[in-house]
Amino acid sequence: LCQLLPRRRVNLPAHALLKLSELTSPSGRSAYTSLLDGLDRTTLSVGMTTERKELSVIVPTYNEYENIRELCTRLFKATKEAGLTAELLVVDDESKGTVATNEIVEDLKKTYPIRIHVRSKAEGRGLSSAVLLGFSKAKYETLLCMDADLQHEPESVPSVAKPVLSGEAEFSVGSRNVPGGGVAAWALHRKIISAGATALAYPLSGSTDPMSGFFCTTKTVLKRGEGRINPIGFKIGLELMVRCECKSVADVPITFQDRVAGESKLTTKQNFLYLMQLAGLYLDRHPLKSSLLLLLVALLCTLIVSYLFY
Span 280-305, mean pLDDT? Predict the structure, then answer.
């Protein structure tokens, strides 16, 4: 056995084991070797994990052409230094900046593995559905989503992707709320709103930053949520963590930078959609405890409306 499997630990089903006496003969050794070759590698405990090196980066955009060139050059510099083979897929919702975005991507194609899908209004709108569309068109198994406004630093992509690439986690999140993470410069009221929204979502995901749009997972994990994922709203990372029943989530520290250029996608309407999204996720995960949550959400809605309009 030691000669056949040097420095390996192999756990095989009882029905797959051959008698030790049979291994002493050439035919027995050959049969055992063939058996091992035919087994799915995922059924073997080999004491080591092979880290994937291929990554599809999905960036939803809306009138953010001013950031694309810098994002692209910084991203591929970071992935190259990390030894990763990456592609960049821009999913652009039709806007006044679409023509410029498309021209810039076409120029960058001469140097980098970058693609663009321009989505007309007839195809759909919204960040979450754009991300899901990008995931469906991605080339590689491992998928990473990030914003185009450079608030998510491209240099952080390898570290955010690492837990998933290495097999340590099914889902990883670029978090502002762990040691080493933070925000560049937020007003106090924005920090309070963010903290409240994070606290509401924490029981669903176990992540310290469940609203983060900087996250990584795999196509295999996404398949678990087919037919259940809600493409409406902006917190697609949270939606995927819950609907796809991610067994392990890793938080990776990032610094959330100030917006460089482009338009914010967050509106008052999206704040209400987030609350509605939370209610749906709690009903899905904890149906017996969701009545209290729905009452809390209604109270929050009332407070937000009072703050905004009175």
Answer: 64
Mean pLDDT of all residues belonging to the chain: 79
Tens-place pLDDT, residues 184-194: 666 676 777 77
Instruction: Report DSSP state, residue 25.
Output: S
pLDDT score of 125 = 83
Per DSSP, the three-state class of 258 is coil
How far is the CA of 145 from the CAs of 89, 132, 148, 164, 258, in angstroms? 10, 10, 10, 13, 18
Residues 6+ apart with CB under 8 A from 212: 173, 174, 175, 176, 237
- Asked if 290 and 188 touch (Cβ cutoff 8 Å), the reply is no
CB 149 within 8 A of CB 214: no
Q: Assess contact for 149 and 256: CB atoms under 8 A.
A: no
Q: Are 119 and 60 in contact (CB under 8 A)?
A: no
* Cα–Cα nearest to 143, from 129, 153, 155, 133: 133
Cβ contact 189:141 at 8 Å:
no
